């Protein structure tokens, strides 16, 4: 998605955002009325337009506990797999699963104490940012697969003219950039923030989502290029494992992440108003954010990189030897 498109969506969201802060104290804008502090009901719930409302819906305890348990199971599974296959970079995926687990554990607590702004804010921020860890893991896995299965000598291992050793750095740093922007936006738009701050936060968060999806699309170009080369017989055939299942698993994981991004953009682009049902029904986030991320973790557990990438050559060397650098410079001069 282009940056102008993201800016347009952000503009729509910020024009329609529901404001709960007591912003009309001076009475300058007579067409608007102050919000009021409602008396909390069971579990601290108040109407969504009250000043002391920190949720757009009445969060339910049971689904939050169930989801926290399931994400906790996935966290444990990936911890075991990472150790068993000796894949140190699995810590990135484990971190994403852990953030999801903690997010819903806090969300469960918040459902029983809805006037606790710390619960509402921390659960939301962790929930919004956790998928970026999974995204980074896909980047790291693919570049290792491309290195492992690529046919030319180390100094000539390139995709679309870019050294494979550089692809990880480019896209992981892009993911870090999206992480920072979304983190800032999510913090600004967290429960309890004033209306103006929420508007700016939504705009920043949408830009971060757009950046994430833009780099996913660019990354897919490298994956498809690798895929087509492998089909033409450029890859090794004596690795002891087929590259296809792992690559298809990564495609599927990126599809899950993209579904989640589209949902989040639609959630905010429609405006946080009663005319847009998405932000006010918890079921949407379970179906279009939680489920895709669980599916991604399941896919990466079944087709774990450790099953396919084995041995010393499955890790990209941090530094190339002088001989390798000389060979790489020579390969650049070849017609």
From TrEMBL:
Membrane topology per record: Multi-pass membrane protein
Keyword Chloroplast: no
Subcellular location as annotated: Membrane
Keywords carried by this UniProt record: Membrane, Transmembrane, Transmembrane helix
Coiled coil: none
Biased composition (Basic residues): 319-329
Repeat in keyword set: no
Transmembrane segments annotated in the record for this chain: 64-84, 91-110, 116-138, 159-184, 204-226, 246-266, 286-303
Name of this chain's protein: RTA1-like protein
Protein source organism: Apiospora saccharicola
């Amino acid at each position: 998605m282009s940056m102008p498109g993201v800016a347009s969506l952000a503009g729509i969201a910020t024009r329609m955002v529901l404001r709960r802060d007591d912003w009309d104290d001076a009475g300058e804008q007579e067409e608007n009325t102050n919000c009021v502090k409602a008396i909390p009901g069971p579990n601290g719930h108040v109407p969504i337009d009250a000043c002391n409302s920190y949720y757009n819906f009445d969060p339910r305890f049971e689904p939050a506990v169930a989801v926290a348990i399931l994400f906790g199971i996935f966290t444990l599974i990936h911890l075991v797999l990472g150790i068993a296959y000796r894949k140190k970079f699995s810590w990135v995926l484990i971190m994403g699963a852990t953030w999801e687990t903690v997010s819903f554990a806090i969300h469960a607590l918040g459902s029983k104490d809805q006037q606790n702004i710390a619960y509402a804010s921390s659960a939301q921020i962790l929930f919004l940012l956790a998928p970026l860890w999974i995204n980074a893991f896909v980047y790291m896995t693919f570049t290792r697969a491309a290195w492992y299965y690529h046919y030319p000598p180390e100094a000539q291992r390139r995709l679309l003219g870019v050294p494979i050793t550089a692809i990880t750095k480019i896209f992981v740093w892009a993911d870090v950039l999206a992480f920072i922007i979304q983190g800032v936006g999510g913090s600004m738009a967290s429960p309890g923030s004033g209306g103006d701050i929420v508007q700016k936060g939504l705009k920043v968060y949408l830009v971060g989502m757009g950046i994430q999806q833009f780099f996913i699309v660019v990354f897919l170009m490298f994956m498809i290029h690798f895929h087509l080369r492998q089909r033409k017989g450029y890859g090794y055939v004596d690795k002891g494992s087929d590259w296809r299942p792992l690559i298809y698993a990564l495609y599927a994981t990126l599809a899950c992440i993209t579904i989640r991004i589209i949902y989040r953009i639609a959630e905010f682009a429609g405006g946080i108003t009663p005319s847009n049902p998405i932000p006010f029904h918890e079921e949407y986030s379970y179906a279009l954010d939680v489920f895709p991320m669980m599916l991604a973790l399941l896919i990466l557990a079944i087709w774990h990189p450790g099953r396919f990438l084995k041995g010393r050559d499955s890790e990209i060397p941090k530094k190339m030897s002088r001989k390798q650098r000389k060979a790489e410079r020579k390969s650049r001069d070849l017609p």
